[in-house]
Design goal:
Length: 331
């Protein structure tokens, strides 16, 4: 009998992070294309936990908007192999496939041409052609997946474009992947207390304000905030989120942008922030948002804008739930 590792051929590395490698491969048992997530659990640092991820995936294996686990195995060097369905496109790739290129990128060597670097190294400019119905379907699907996670007492903690996948350019059904840093109530298998959760979660511009300011008793609404930032990309005219995404963006730069977009809160509008020494020390004066919602969701209808406004509230317990978003958006 063949070893489990011999079952998968034509392995191609498609993604690599500090604690995992993702391969595209052919499963000789079924003849289908799969994704292999390979980790070394003993080398993972909190909150990364691939063994728990397997447990959570088995628990959530009945939602069309959550990645389905197909198989698992241990192999040499204490590696854990998680077998998953293969999806072609991340959210960003799906959006680009459903867009029109307005201007192509220029990538010439600036030292060989006259002109400024900005004139020479211009990024590709896109025009969003996804359409209102499909855009709302994507948001509704993500909300449905989050509702399923939250009903099973799981906070995803890393909603971002690369963790939303699609089977093809024509299928607007989103699939949430990567539960590797998710929190399972009540104590994340004894690793985190409810009121002492790790705040070094979520990524870049998708990190909610409660985590930026070190509020360790956050809960499901953190995923709602991340989805709201995603929506500014989905309903943008040029495939750009409301905050410019740069490598190495600091929490300080993110919160500065959030204050401009959603207004500066004080302890009267954001009571839970009074538990943050950092927030208390910056002594903010309350100010309204600089940009209207119509500028943040350029291609959305009024119904979607209304839902968005209920999502992007600093006081997390006042945010609309994932189930509420799913029910409020009509296609």
């Amino acid at each position: 009998m063949k070893k489990f590792s011999d079952r998968f051929i034509d392995q191609e590395l498609i993604s690599s992070t500090k604690f995992s490698d993702i391969y595209k491969a052919t499963d000789q048992k079924t003849g289908g294309i799969v994704a292999l997530k390979i980790t070394v659990p003993d080398e993972e640092l909190q909150p990364h936990n691939s063994i728990q991820e397997v447990q959570l995936l088995k628990k959530t294996n009945h939602s069309e908007n959550i990645i389905q686990i197909l198989d698992t195995s241990k192999r040499d060097f204490d590696e854990l192999v998680i077998v998953l369905p293969y999806y072609q496109l991340t959210l960003s790739q799906y959006m680009k496939k459903n867009s029109k290129i307005v201007k192509k990128a220029f990538n010439f060597n600036p030292f060989l041409l006259r002109g400024t670097r900005e004139e020479v190294l211009r990024p590709t400019v896109y025009e969003n052609k996804l359409g209102l119905s499909k855009s709302k379907s994507v948001v509704k699907g993500i909300a449905n997946g989050l509702s399923f996670l939250h009903s099973n007492e799981i906070i995803h903690r890393d909603i971002k474009p690369s963790n939303i996948m699609f089977k093809s350019i024509d299928d607007p059904t989103p699939t949430i992947i990567d539960l590797g840093i998710s929190f399972q109530y009540p104590t994340n298998n004894g690793k985190e207390f409810q009121n002492e959760k790790v705040t070094d979660v979520s990524t870049g511009i998708y990190k909610p304000p409660e985590c930026i300011f070190g509020l360790k008793d956050y809960s499901y609404p953190m995923d709602i905030w991340s989805l709201g930032i995603l929506m500014t990309l989905i309903f943008s005219n040029d495939l750009k989120a409301c905050i410019e995404e740069e490598k190495g963006s600091s929490d300080i730069s993110v919160i500065y942008s959030l204050f401009k977009l959603f207004g500066k809160p004080d302890c009267s509008t954001w009571p839970e922030a009074s538990n943050s020494p950092t927030f208390a020390n910056i002594c903010l004066e309350k100010q309204p948002p600089i940009k209207p919602v119509s500028d943040l969701l350029e291609l959305a209808d009024n119904e979607t804008k209304e839902v968005f406004m209920q999502m992007m509230v600093y006081e997390s317990k006042h945010r609309i739930t994932a189930d509420g978003i799913y029910g409020a958006i009509n296609i």
